[in-house]
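Reopening this ticket.

The earlier resolution said the output was attached, but the attachment link was broken on my side. Pasting everything inline this time so it's all in one place.
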Amino acid sequence: MSVPLNHQLKAFLKQQPISFHVPGHKNMTIGTLHELDLAMDITEITDFDDLHHPEGILKESMQTLDKHPNYDGFYLVNGTTSGLLSVIQATSRTESPIVMSRNVHKSVFHGLDLAQKEAEILPMTVSDVTHQYVAPLNDQKEKSNSLVIVTYPNYYGELFDIETFIKTQHAKNTPVLVDEAHGAHFGLKGFPESSLSYGADYVVQSYHKSLPALTMSSVIFIHKDAPYREQVIEYLTYFQSSSPSYLMMAGLERAHHFYKTYESTHFFTQRQRLLDALEAEGLEVHEMDDPLKVTLTYAGYTGYDIQQWLETQHLYVELADEAQVLLVLPMWHQGDRFPFELLLARINALKLPEVTDEVSSSIPKMPKHIGYYQPVRITKMRSIDFNQATGRVLAQHIVPYPPGIPVLYKGEQIQQDMIDVMEAWVAQGIRVEGMTHRTIKIKDE
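Inline output:
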């Protein structure tokens, strides 16, 4: 029987892998997803309602999404992407532009392309710890925009003053969409506050990233006074499957119950035990604003090296880059099935090389300037060495992996700081979509 993916998955699980990546159920060791019965994979039969016109059990189920009294929650079975696309489409009819931070998810660009909506890119601050984008700077214009989109927290769990940012935008009558994909656990004791507490108009959360839910399972929270509210709800039916998975929705219901009943004391106890074990092996631990995220470095070596060392012990990280690896910790709880003692044994079995004083690589400086995204379809383009591209218009996104977030955008005018970062990527051999050796595609005038 030719089922290669099934064989690969079974072989992987036989290794007893320990997960420090999404999804939040961590190989079914956190939460109660393991209690789901695959026979629950049904369709919209009698008594089971319709996600696109909920009047019965699904309406009742989504009413339990009561993280904040000013919001209504809606299941997303096509991932957080479907929520982002729905808000962008609903707000795209206005003449004023959309404004966004430079570290938005690639689905935001897909939404802009579908809506044929231009966007102003806000200047950003960059973290001294992770070297990633953190905070968008409020634009100084007094006029309102049709929408502003920001990412909070960033992929690495770093925060900025989202409360002040939202207040500033609301003072200009601009609605705010917060991509809080990595913050479904926010609001719990010991963790950061969610942007729900600060009046964002739309908040999308990828429940599956930190809570025990099936991959693709997300929620959009819409403020009861949000502009375009009804249009957003309508577009949710456009961007989601007409055959939503009842397993996913049942999993979301369980994940939210997990959130509502979660007691975090055990998590912080286990977290400290983990950090102590990692430091005892010589790894340098960097704690993020979000306690669920941790990065590891090792002097003289790259994150790719650390990833390889950990994987020899079947410990799997969320991502590695030229400087570090990122761990997404489990939401440990009393009665979980996470193999914690096996984890400690595997960390103790790590064989790390001697620390060196050598610098493993220089860290590329991320572009911080204001920019502009044009959703135009560029049909005439040509390839050019990026060192000759100053002032030219990019014909496609430039996307380094990881984390797979576009850094330079199609339609942007190329500036020197953009060339500098591409030069650094080439020197380090980083895989970058949109670059072939030293060439990029530009609009052929």
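Reporter confirms the inline version is readable. The chain has a mean pLDDT of 94. Residues 190 and 207 are 18 Å apart (CA to CA).
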